[in-house]
Please model this.
Amino acid sequence: MLPGSSLLKQKDVLTFNELVQFSTLLNFRSNITILQEGEEENRVSIPVSNDEAHVTFYLIYKKAMKNIFHISSKDIQDIPWKDI
Model:
């Protein structure tokens, strides 16, 4: 994964955000969180663009709810993430 490095895993979001804000530790963010929360001050975002860096999400729902969940990846990209 990252040879010669140690990773710090933090499950508590508030603690993670404080660690990122008040340290020089590297952090990993998705394109969705960057759209939602904006760029971080005094940090440089470097996109990870290799094939292994992509995740596929699946939505499971009852057939009766198909009309509610008929969305495309473009629909997801068009969500105003900064407003959420």
Remarks:
- Residues 36 and 80 are 8 Å apart (CA to CA).
- Residues 13-21 form the longest helix (9 residues).
